[in-house]
């Protein structure tokens, strides 16, 4: 088991200087099921042991959930490709823009150099700049960075302003520090946690979701893991069944329903030996998984996919068959991660008394049994 006590020095620095969180709350899904808990298999590839992005060896995830008063429902989710000094040991990476209505700090340098040199942070839209500034502040203070004069923080966002007072820009350096300090190799919390605390998706409470897929070919065996922050519109589709249409009901739904709007951040990790161009192609395939869940890909949606490899060897050219399996893994793990974000999310009441309900998983399960996607109840 990979536990925090075994983390490398840079992550331990954040642990040692982090006070106990004062106002963060764990709003994870508790006993709410994940997709596999229903016996539902998305796609044909097998999941890793955790069915999470942390199935990719060395990848760590930490989160800070920020709930303050009646109006702040937001947070930070941090993805660390490894627990060491990413500035000294960057990873090969790529970022793909599906629709650019968003604020992704650090985009141009990653596209230019094909590598990421900091942890990846996710948060709310107008807090993205504060999170980036906090990350730079923490990294400049890290041992060995005394002469550093340029850092390229990678920070993405979705707009959680329906449930959280986004204009308050509540994210502070202690929240970023908490997310980094809590990073571990266990399965991340899902649903209404971290950067997913105040998000909505497909008319229901969205949030953080994760999944993974194993790929075995003649050229080798690899893992693709995905983590998503869901906050987009459309009509929910589960395993090909248009359940959103069947579940639609009054009162009026939040903005990110079939009318569109909203965004998604997709982070993919792999241990496959891919160069930056192949990682770009891998990231592009994640949007196939997004489409399968019923996304509307609207005008106002910020849809971004970040892909990186933890492999530090010489980039190899995999043959077409191996790449195809990796592409399938990206689509399948993204599709399941999105569904897990909805299945695990809890009902949240927030800014101006607004409430976004959790997806009624029991009703979804009944529909899937009715359509024979799941076996009939005994």
Can you summarize this structure?
By secondary structure, the protein is of the alpha+beta class. It contains 8 helices and 14 strands. The strands form 4 sheets. A 6-stranded mixed beta sheet has the order 4-3-12-11-10-9, sandwiched between helices.
Strand numbers in spatial order across the main sheet: 4-3-12-11-10-9
Number of helices: 8
- Integer tally of domains: 1
The CATH topology name reads L-amino peptidase D-ALA esterase/amidase
| Apparent shape | globular
- SS-based structural class? alpha+beta
Please tag this protein with its features.
single chain, alpha+beta, L-amino peptidase D-ALA esterase/amidase, six-stranded mixed β-sheet, four-stranded mixed β-sheet, disordered N terminus
Protein model, in words:
By secondary structure, this protein is of the alpha+beta class. It has one domain (4-366): L-amino peptidase D-ALA esterase/amidase, CATH 3.60.70.12. The protein has helices at 9-16, 107-113, 128-140, 173-181, 243-247, 276-292, 320-344, 361-370; strands at residues 60-68, 72-80, 91-100, 115-116, 120-124, 154-158, 200-201, 204-205, 208-217, 220-232, 262-270, 302-309, 348-349, 355-356. The longest helix has 25 residues, at 320-344. The chain is globular, with a radius of gyration of 19 Å. The model is unreliable at 1-7 and 15-27 (pLDDT under 50).
